[in-house]
Design goal:
- This protein has four helices and twelve strands.
- It is of the alpha+beta class and about 210 residues long.
- Helices cover about 20% and strands about 30% of the residues.
- It starts with a strand and ends with a strand.
Length: about 210
Amino acid sequence: MPYVDRQNRICGFLDIEENENSGKFLRRYFILDTLADSLLWYMDNPQNLPSGASHVGALKLTYISKVSDATKQRPKAEYCFVINAGMRKYFLQANDQQDLVEWVNILNKATKITVPKPADVQLSTENQNCLVEGPCGRKTGPYKTEIIGGVPIITQTNQEGMEFLEGIDKNNLKHSHSQLTYFIGKPTSDQAVIKNGYCVKQGAVVSNRSM
């Protein structure tokens, strides 16, 4: 059964088919070292080996794509599971069914790649300001933020109006806020234009029809 040693590594004995498709399984002592990103196996427990004894096999965890039950692929190998690593498949035998399940779960968990969810991809206020503001700290105008494929995309809106304003000498601009809005904006097709009405001129009520 796999257990945790003093260095917080998962260890235990397994049988491995070192030569692919040979059908010959050899007893080895395995150490799952996540800090070194490696699965190592030795002839025996390193504590029982001469000082400085090296491992006889190693596999980088980043190369492992999937670990699964292989009893159907190798019906003659009892409690067999397979490690898929690139073009190579490593077949191993556990001691019993529970041992098999534990090793499969442990190895899959150690090699799992976590993809952040869109809800988890949130920019900090500081990062948002850096994206919205230009290199000189000047704001580039209205913008909108969209999450596309888990990546925040910030796009600027009303760019044409902002470029127009940038060409105006703001010191000479005397218009009020309402006048500025009218100056920039254009009436839409659904806005009705008043054709008839009355206005006060020199104290008299006069229809605009006669003006």
